[in-house]
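Morning. Coffee machine broken again, so started the prediction first thing and wrote up yesterday's gels while waiting. Chain of 303 residues, entered below exactly as on the submission form.
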Amino acid sequence: MLPAQQGSFRLFRFKRIDVHVHWSWFIIAMYSVSQRVPNYTTPAWAVLEYVMLFVTVTLHEFGHALACRQVGGTANQIVLWPLGGVAYVAPPQRAGATLWSIAAGPLVNVVLLPVFIGLGWACRWAGLLENNPDFVHFLRALVVMDLSLLVFNLLPIYPLDGGQILRSLLWYWCGRARSLQVATIIGLIGGVGLVALAVWDQSIWLGVIAYFLLSQSWGSFRAAGALRKLEQLPRRPEFKCPVCHALPPRGALWVCPSCKAAFDPFATAAVCPHCQHANDTTMCPNCHEARPHRSWDASIVDA
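Came back before lunch.
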């Protein structure tokens, strides 16, 4: 289950994006810092190293959020938790838009890598590394940390960035639902592989990560099945989504906000047949955008 705003507090706001930190993050932070302390002569360096990990993960998530906005999507929240960070992004339901929204996160790590390496060379040239083993180890840790985040996130295991990038690329060839099915099947296989690695390495932490990835892949696999069924439903050619121009499916697939009963707004002029509530807007099952029902008229969209 992904972290939500519940159980977290807002740390800061930038570019209208709220950054929250989950309470459990502090427990892992204290443990992680304690593991780093033996590498330095003073605990301050261990704290600084973990702060830089925090900064790197946050920049990674901002890469996702800002890229999503570039393609017309919605991204207003980032939550940092023990397993890393989650940018809640909702890009337009197009392969290219999704691909850029996801790929921008790892690209941040790609950009940071030469920055950290260059910083090390500059400090060496300036003589700042002589007789300062703590600083040397800190700079090396920055490079290893950023490279590790990059490699791990690019594993083709859904919902890691690599798995979502694979899904976006497959989307071009086999469509929205089938691409999600294929990516999640690969994610399930990869998750089982991580479980085996966790058992072999006797790593509880890796086991927790593997369980999280497996649960997310399984949930997305089931969602892909429902999406496949939705795609195969007959359509109404007399209506079009005013945003993505998709034809709405036939059937009682919408829920009345008043009585919570399922109905088909395109068969009843958006009036619920159960409670007679008139719905002003209708949500598109393809792009999830809600627009005035009268704007769904195909003749208006095409005009």
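The chain has a mean pLDDT of 91. Going to sketch it on the whiteboard this afternoon.
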